[in-house]
Structures are given as C-alpha cells and as structure tokens.
Amino acid sequence: MGFLKLEKITKRFSGSVAVDHLDLEVEEGEFLVLLGPSGCGKTTTLRIIAGLEVQTEGKITLEGKDISDAPPERRDMAMVFQNLALYPHMTVFNNIAFYLQNIRTSKETIEEKVQHAAQTVGIQELLLRYPDQLSGGQRQRVAVARALVRSPKVFLLDEPLSSLDAKLRAGMRSELKLLHKNLSQSKERKGTFIYVTHDQVEALTLGTRVAVMNKGSIVQLSTPRDLYNKPRNLFASTFVGSPSMNLIEGSLERTNGSAAFCFQGHCIGLGDVGAGVLSRANCAQMPVVLGIRPESVKIAGSGAAGALGAQVITVEPLGQNNLINLQVGDRMLIALVSPDLAIHEGEEVGVYFQPEATHLFDPQTEENLLG
Ligand SMILES: Nc1ncnc2c1ncn2[C@@H]1O[C@H](COP(=O)(O)OP(=O)(O)O)[C@@H](O)[C@H]1O
Ligand SMILES: [Mg+2]
User: Which atom of ligand 1 is nearest to the CA of 11?
Assistant: First the structure.
C-alpha cells in the first residue's frame, strides 16, 4: 500500500485537460519530484494533492484513507508556493507562526516551534524583519520554515527555487536535500516531499524518484539514475540530460549475425544490442531512432575501423569538457570529450558510439526498444 496514492486523477478546465488519468504512488519519507515542461500539469497535480483544486475524476488516498473530497485543512499537508506568498505586513515570526496562531496553539508552543523551524533553516536573526527586508534566499527559507512548523505528513513544493539566481539556487538545493534527509530520519514523522520543477538538474539531484510528466500524464517514474540511463521513451530521453541526447533516424539492419544502425548510406555496428531488438521483432531490418548521449559519442582518428566519417564543425571549451559539434552526412551530432583530446575545427575524424550506451526507439510509438 502506498503512503499517498493518486488513482486515475483527471482535471479538466472548461474543456481542456490539465491532468489526464494520472496514477502515482508516493512512499513515506521519499523525495518525489514531478518533472516536466511548462504547462504539463505539475502545479495542477500538486494543488489537487493539497486539496486546493478539486479533481474532475479520480481518487486520492493518504495512509489508506480516502481524502478525495477532504478540504485542504484536513489533509495534513503543507505547501510552499512558487511565488512564496509571504504576508507582507507580518514579521517573519508571524509569517511562520500564522498557521499555529490560527489553530490556537499556546504561546509557549508557538515560540518553541517557530524558533526550532527558524533554526532548522538558519533564519533565527531575521524573525523581527518584514518580507521586503529580506533577500530572495531568505524569503525562500521563511517559506520553508512556514511549512516546517506544521510538521505535515506531506510537504508540497512548487518550483520553490525558481525565483532565485543560479548560484543561490544550487546552495538552496543542497539545503533542501539535507533538510529532507534529516526529516526522513526523524522518529515521529518522516518528511515526505513532493517537489515540482521543470529543471532536470534539480530533479536528478534532489529526487529519490522522478516522475517525468508530459501533457498531463506521467511518462516515466524511476530513480534519477535509471531515468538518465534507461529513458523509456523519446520524451524522457530528450527532456533529461544537457546537452540533449543525440537522435538519429535510420534503420537497424542484420549484418552476418550481428546488427548495424544505418542512415544515409552510413552504417555503424551495434553488436548484440541491435541483434536482440531485431530477433525480438522477428525481422532483418526495421526503422528506428538511435539515441546516444553526447558523453557516449567517442572520437577516433579518421578512417578508424567501424567508425563513421565525420567533420569537426566547432569546438566549444566548457571547462570540464569540450563540446564538439560534428557533421556526419547532413546530420549534426554533439560530443562531450575531455579537453585533453586534441580535436580541431575542420578536422576529419572517426566517430563511434559505445554500444552499451546506445538507445533504440520505435519511431511510431516513441518507446525505447531496449526496454
Ligand atoms: N485555473 C485554471 N483555469 C484554466 N486552465 C488552467 C488553470 N490552471 C491551469 N490551467 C491549464 O492547465 C494546464 C496545466 O497547467 P499547470 O498545472 O499550471 O502546468 P505546469 O505547472 O506544469 O506549468 C495548462 O494548460 C494551464 O493553462
Ligand atoms: Mg507550475
């Protein structure tokens, strides 16, 4: 039994479908990330979980109890909104204490809980300030502290770092991860986080599992590692990873016992990986889209056996890596290679793909043929 379970949740807004038969099970104590492009239904899904939006169809259970129709205050969840939504006329202390004051908690308990939450996110010195006297990062911490004092069963966070600049975002990301780790080890109530983002780096670094959403549905739910290494379909394969996975349309062909990927008269051996796909499909030739991540595109000398002939168009130093733009036939490919490798613009090279890092997708269904 899942801790929090969404079954066939659908949300329609005057005819348009924002969430489409979405199934999701979240385990207690996990950090689940909903990742997807703008407009794919992430916020709507989170608001439905919080009870701020009512689903058109479907069921939600928390610890086995049906909460589909429960109002937000009965769900024992706390949400950190994208725009933070602090009360401008209240001090930081009162912003954090607001919920506790509302449910008539005693003054001593409020003092204790606010201090504890403020300490957890490192804002003890700011309790008497007003939101407009805080930096973006400090406001962010207040918003998190406001959720913390409720010790909710589930924390819901909607792009909580999107308003911060890149450097601060990376710092806050690590803090959130640490906060979750500490809460998830707590004895009473494990901190269960559902975190919405369109940023794949946030998703991969924070999530114990990541649900990739597209057009109101979850297209893949897996660990960050599996999402990166075993994308189930073309959407997940290109949404995760930067620079994006290279995709080449072509065909998979049997060549005396083994298999090769061919496009525009070029062929590259794929060995057992390709042969398995062909024998499962029971054919000698089939159209496929080959996917290869830039770091798995390898560069050899021109004319190397089994390599594709390519021309180096540009070399972009990124510090840790060089990004190489290559032209093969009329296709452009991106490779990420060590800066120690002497590769020059205009040079003819040989390109090959690590077979175990190669993905093959069905051009029609867009599913990964390797499973
Ligand atoms: N209150 C609303 N009324 C009408 N359409 C809405 C409303 N809220 C969201 N939508 C639509 O639902 C879709 C999903 O929106 P949203 O959940 O905000 O996506 P995301 O958070 O992934 O960017 C979008 O097409 C959006 O325009
Ligand atoms: Mg949103």
Answer: 12
